[in-house]
Specification:
193 residues; alpha/beta; 8-stranded mixed sheet; two-stranded antiparallel sheet; 4 helices
Amino acid sequence: MGKVVMYASVSVDGFIADEGDQPGPLFDWLLSGEVPLDESGFVKVSQTSYDYIKPYWDSIGATIAGRHVFDLTNGWDGVPPGDVDHVVIVTRRGRPEGWFPEAPFHFVDGIEAAMAKAQELAGDRIVEVSAGDVGGQILAAGLVDEVRMDVAPAVLGSGKRYFGSVDAQHLLEDPAEVIQGNRILHLRYPVRR
């Protein structure tokens, strides 16, 4: 079974989006370099960020996300973000009728079912957990092995919190990596057990 990693770009004050669900400057780093990060050629980062992010992205077997982000993006029009093989959506509503029937998206009710499905799909590859409410619930359940943050030099003031509505203390180990890219600080923390 692969490692479970909670991941997102985040503001210095801990938000992954503003009150209107917009990431704003949190993704500026994805356009701040010369090295294409994906096949589209649209996303270009510094060589330092590429060397850090690309091996991680290539090792993801499945991503878990909530229905809210799925609805905001229309499920990325049926194409998993970052070329991930499978996306598991935590929802009580199921797959929207007629929505990209062949897309590798799986709709499950609850974080335990989501984790079981994602681990089955990912095998020994990484299960990525999107930050926010679903990610916070999975962290609180003790199912996250590592927290990765791409910290943007921005203060949003309010919005959607990286750890969602987690209201209990969770300790992380010292950073396993701290890497400075263009307009971003990449951090990786093992979760203390």
